[in-house]
Amino acid sequence: MIEALQFEFMRNAVIAGCFASLICGVIGSFVVINRLVFLAGGIAHAAFGGIGIAFFFGIPYMLGTLGFSLIAAMIMTAVVLNNKSRADTFIGILWAVGMAIGIILLDMTPGYNVNLMSFLFGSILAVPASDIWWMAGLSIFSIAAAVFFYRDLLAISYDDEFARLRGVPVNLIYFLFIGLVAVSIVIIIRVVGLILVIALLTIPPYIAEKYSRSLAQMMVLSTLLAIVFNLSGLWLAYTYDLTSGATIILVAAAAFFISMIFDGLFLKKRALLP
Prior knowledge:
Blueprint: H1 8-33, H2 37-57, H3 61-82, H4 87-108, H5 117-121, H6 129-148, H7 150-158, H8 160-165, H9 170-192, H10 197-210, H11 215-240, H12 244-272
Helix pairs in contact: 1-6, 1-9, 1-10, 1-11, 2-3, 2-4, 2-9, 3-4, 3-9, 6-9, 9-10, 10-11, 10-12, 11-12
């Protein structure tokens, strides 16, 4: 792996993986704590419509996908805040519509010859320098938002009704952070792909939550775990010539099941103690 770092694409992949890990650690913790995984999944799949729009109209990939994803995310957030009992149905509809729009527009794109697999399963080894700058900017903004709204995040994550009574701008914070989820998904698609992005956004925070005593600790531990998963998966993909995105997710999934087994054995042992 060390000798591979002499190549620029490998150095870009390592840097992209680290920035993606930081984004997952901060934003993913918000998603897991607030049980918004299904909503994040809806945004991820709706983002495919943005990919189709970008290629059909010949606009930059990032601009088209980001714009469409943000619109879908804001609509989903409004539904979740105003009609929680039907939110899953509406999210499922937008999920399907976004995918359908993307597929139809790609079918209609003249001379379409883009490798769709790179969007579905990621291509961290082909991440351009421009995307790294996007990741760096989003990482800085995510940390700043988490620090600035930390107390409010704690309040709405554990009791949003009480937070409203305290005057916390719950709706504003939800819209802001779901917007960050949408931006994170669009950017991380380059690393692990559209299908696997939710796994990277949720597995590290889920594991970290069990070993953390605060939201801040969870974000830090989640970031460190995501870095380990990204670099380990990248090394395995490079060594054995595997698809990088899928390999990263399998490493994360292996850690998830190991943590589950460890917890099961530990809790069972504790239960047997007098």
